[in-house]
Amino acid sequence: MQWTGSGPTPAHTGGLTPVLELRKGSPAIFVVDDDPVQRLLISATLQKHGFRVAQAADGLAALDRLTGGEECALLLTDLHMPHMDGDELVRRLRANALTASLPIVILTGSVGAEHESELSHLGAQGFILKPVDPSQLLANVRAALPRAS
Predict the structure, then answer these.
(1) Positive or negative, the Cα torsion across 116, 76, 80, 44?
(2) What pTM was computed for the model?
(3) Segment 86-118, tens digit of pLDDT
């Protein structure tokens, strides 16, 4: 792993993981989940298929980085997290001119029809149920990425 950011080294990022350089020009996917095992499994699957991956453990950390200009072609976010949940993260990203059109896919343990409708109205392109199935993850990522261009 090569640290590509400025500032503190990865050991001093307070739970944040740097962007991993796999292939120049490959899309950068931002994974936000408070469960480190889920983040690792999702990130490993994406990296195996050539994507660059950045991670955050909660919505507040992701919001700070994304509104600060960190490169991201697609956001995968959990709904239930400390400091800022996925609902609020989506709302704030949609309200910011820099991130308003960012494709977003929600990671969740369950989605009811009412909640799914609400999140779709906010602009989520899709939902992935946990535990994450790698083929479903890749299908949702590939379906959402063309919206980034």
Answers:
(1) positive
(2) 0.80
(3) 989 999 999 999 999 999 999 987 766 676 676
